Amino acid sequence: MRINPLFWFIPSLIVFIGILLLSTVLSIPVQIEGVGYTDKLSHIFAYFVLIVTLLFAFHKNGLLQGKSWMMLVLLCSVYGILLELAQYTLFPNRYFEWLDALANVLGALIGSVLFRLIWRVKEEQA
Q: Where are the domains of the chain?
């Protein structure tokens, strides 16, 4: 049985929509006792998961070539910044925070670098 190539994008779509909802209409404060900046860690984690699921889907479909790595990081980063701007302009009681936008970009970068390192190691072992 052959899997439809779009199947691999379902996790990315779920994460994409989850980030959209959590950044706009849902507000779930996350606080871990003894850990400061939990909100920023949540942003980093969300965009880490988003980029990893996208990179995996592109890889499974043979689309991860050349500059596609950086284009996906750029896409995730712009998405994170635009959501911060949307919070400021469209949603009362939501605010634009540069540190949140930076955490979004950082999560995408970290996810991309780790995915690429793991991918290289896996290729070398093959």
A: 40-125
